[in-house]
Structure formats: C-alpha cells, structure tokens
Amino acid sequence: MPSLSSKVKSINCRNFINGEFIEPNHTNTFENVNPATEEVIGWVAEATKEEVDLAVQSAKKALKGPWKNFTVKERSSIIRKIGDLILENVEELAVLEATDTGKPYSLALEMDIKRSAHNFHFFADYVTSLGNESYNQDNIALHYSVTRPVGVVGMINPWNLPLLLLTWKLAPCLASGSTAVMKPAELTPMTATRLVELCKEAGVPDGVVNLVHGFGSNSAGAFISEHPDVDAITFTGETSTGTVIMKAAAPTLKKVSFELGGKNPNIIFADSDIDEVIDTTLKSSFMNQGEVCLCGSRIYVQRPVYDQFIEKFVARTKQLRVGDPFEDSTDVGAVIGKEHYEKVMKYIQIAKEEGGNILTGGDRPSHMEKGYFIEPTIVTGLTQQSRCVREEIFGPVVVVMPFDDEEEVIEYANDTHYGLGATIWTNDLRRAHRVAAQIEAGMIWVNTWYLRDLRTPFGGMKHSGIGREGGTHSFEFYCEVSNVTIKL
Ligand code: NAD
Fold first, then answer.
1. Which of 14, 171, 365, 409 is the most buried (most CB within 10 A)?
2. Which ipTM score applies to this complex?
3. 242 lines ligand 1 (CB under 6 A)
4. Rounded to whole angstroms, what are the CA distances from 172 to 88, 215, 278, 290?
5. Residue of 225, 241, 264 best suited for mutating to test ligand 1, as the one with most atoms within 8 Å of CB
6. CATH of 4-260+464-487, one of 3.40.605.10, 2.30.30.60, 3.30.310.260, 3.40.1160.10
7. For 73-97, what is each residue's pLDDT tens digit?
8. How far is the CA of 17 from the centre of ligand 1 (A)?
C-alpha cells in the first residue's frame, strides 16, 4: 500500500492569463497546506487587482477573437478533448485533489476527477443537440430565438469538490461560446492549475479560460465580483458569501447563479428497508468527511424503527476508518484545514452544551497525531431549536431525531432557511410522492442519495441558491437570448 509521503504530490500555483502562466514576484504568494499532514506543500500566487483586470480584459478580448467563429462542432470537439485529457491524467489529478483537500484518494479518483471528465463529455454532446425555439403565430408572424454567449463569466468556487464543481461551470460556459475567469478556493488551488494547462493542450484559444488565485474579500474573489466587464458570476459556496457577492455584483447588474449552503433532511419512515437505509445514510452523512453540500446532516427517523436504526447506524459508523487519504482502506480523510477543523469541533462542543448525547465520535481519532482528522460523529437528544440542527456544520457530524407522523416530519424538514436537498426513505409509493411534493428543497431523492443525471435541475431554493445548474439550466445561464419576429 502506498504511504502518505510517497504518494503526495504538489505543484506551485501561478495565475494563468491569456494562455500563459504569470511569474509571481513572490511578495504576493501564500502557502498551500496539506490538511492530512499540516505540512506546507507549495505556494500560490495571489492575483493582484491589476492581474484580475488583465484576466478579465483577456477574456473580453477572446470573445471577439478566433473563439467567436468556432462552429458548435469545433467547440464540442475541444470540450470533449478536455474531458479526454482529464481521463488521461486521472491519477495525477486525483493525487493532487486528495493532497489539497485531505479526502480519500479513491474518492478523488472516482467522484472528483472522473466525474469532472464526464462534465466535459456531457456538454460536448449536449451542445450539438440543441435547436432554437420557434413559433409560427397563425401565419401572421414567425418568431424564433437566437442565442449568443453571455460574455465574460466569473467563476468563484469552494474547496470541497474543487475540480468537479469548477468543471460543472466551465464545460457549459465553453459550450455556449462564453469566456471564463475562474477562481478556485484559496485552500484548493492545484487541480484548477492543471486544468488550464489541459485546456490549452486541448486547443482552447488564449484568453478564453483564465485562472486567478486568491481569497475572497479584498482579493481575487471581490475583484471579480465587482469588475464592470464581468457579465455574469457563477458562485458555489457559503450562503453568507453569496450575499456579499450579490451586493458587489449589483451596481453592474451582473447575471448571477448561486449554489449555496444546505442543512438537508434525511427522512426515514418505518416502512423502509433499514439495511439499505443504513448503507446509503453512511455515505450521505460522512462521504467526503461530510463536506458535501448535499450531505443529509439532519436525520429524522420514525419512532417505531428509531432504536433499531440507531443501533445499526452507530455500529456501522464505528467501523468507518478515518486516516491517511492514500491508504486504500480509508473511508474518511482529513477536513479541509485548521479553521474548519476548529469550527466543526466547536459545533460538537455546542451539541454537548445543548444537552446532546454523542453516540460515537466527537473527537479527533487517537491514532492520527497530525492532520485535521475528526471522527464521524452521531448526536442525539437535540431539539429543532438547537444550533447543530439549524446551522450548517459541513463536517462529519449528524444529528438524529425521532418523529411520529408525516405531517410532523414535513414541518421539521422545512423548518430551516435552507432548501438544497432532501432524502426520503419509504416503500409507500403514494407517501413518497406526497412528501416529496411538500419538501422545500431543490433536489429530493427517494430511496437513494446523490444519484445524478446531468440533464436534471441542480440547485437550491430559499437561502440555498439562485437558479439551477444542469443541462439546459446550466447552458441558458451562459447565454443571452434574442427573439426575432418576422411578419409573414
Ligand atoms: P466560501 O463561501 O467560504 O468560499 C467559496 C469561494 O468564495 C472561495 O473561492 C472564496 O475565496 C470565495 N469568497 C469568499 N469570500 C468572498 C467575497 N467576499 N467575494 C468573493 N468571493 C469570496 O465557501 P467554502 O467554505 O469554500 O465552501 C463551503 C460552502 O459551500 C458550504 O456552505 C457548502 O454548502 C457550499 N457548497 C454548496 C454547493 C451547492 O451546490 N449548493 C456545493 C458545494 C459547496
């Protein structure tokens, strides 16, 4: 089995503007830390305001360059090639992703990197299948729509699924003919830095894809959000950051697409198949250390099966192996960094103070001396009013609560300002439809979780987002549409 030290790989991360990496002057770099070892693994060049402006100007210029005249088929074949190159470099990218995030290498390989390639392959196919909307109005007039690229798109990304979420934005952006200024999260800059090289290798013209590194406030994130020549912002991250970006984008009326936080209910009715529930609930609770926006961190279990669920769920959670992301046997890696580790541990403390019972976990694993590791943690005994039930923890911590009937659990599920995802477990078909229709969430799974089809709408309601991604929903964001009316 490869050891942590032999597999870890890192690269220094430069800004990529107009098809070239920019050499930093090294007064403006920050350290990149491996969360599994706490070691500094490289440096990242923080883009200055002038560099962000250069990136935006090069993206603006590229809209009118050769890219403008690429046929749909040519764009499609470049997008497909990027996906192919990701697959050709799948292991290297997975090592970089696991090193940057602390997540298990096996998960980075299967979920982050292979699905990133799939994002490009999907939109390469999708864009060639599009037609235009048209209406013949009683032979009086013919109306048809013409789409064009929205322009320069700022892409601001989180650290939990760095390449996957970035490519989920970049693929439809390229399909539309728009151009991009991308900013990865400051904590996970490496795969985005490799991606721009692969884009160049695939034949993306200079200036179409630009990459700037840095932080949010008073750094690259803010410089993109307020830049007058950025036409649209697509952002995935915390709800509170979304409000700041929206304010910054307001004076220049940018189009926005926001994928924000969640506090997703996982509702388990007594008639469901408990063993299947447990298998999937382990994933929906602790996959990627619980650092997936769709994780079901509020688990509501109908009273007749509550004790049985708890007994089995706790036993299986105790079997999860926390540790070295590069060990094949690892189920749960390190959380993203020191600040986040402290935040999650604080919530565990709050759970105790609020009267919660920690059934398993609640601490760092004793066998990991270094690194930001947290044991998968199950809390019971809390009420709907508890902070751990209401606030997004975004770590390996779930709260389990009993309920009696359908009406009660729907009320609990909707008692949040979030509305991203939900899972319902039942073998009663009518109940599944009935409950799904009443849950205020953008994505609802019945008897499964995280099963995705890239054509379906992805996103949240309430404070979990604005707009949807996926298939047509993504594509339309990156386009402007004009209607043409011809009198017949
Ligand atoms: P974050 O909001 O702290 O940061 C996300 C990005 O925004 C980073 O690149 C950061 O540098 C940038 N940023 C921060 N402040 C900014 C500012 N003032 N102006 C411009 N940019 C700014 O989020 P995070 O901690 O990286 O990610 C975790 C959050 O993301 C969780 O809330 C999670 O639920 C959410 N998320 C949502 C989805 C979804 O699809 N809805 C997917 C993944 C993650």
1. 171
2. 0.97
3. no
4. 21, 25, 36, 27
5. 241
6. 3.40.605.10
7. 999 999 999 999 999 999 999 999 9
8. 23
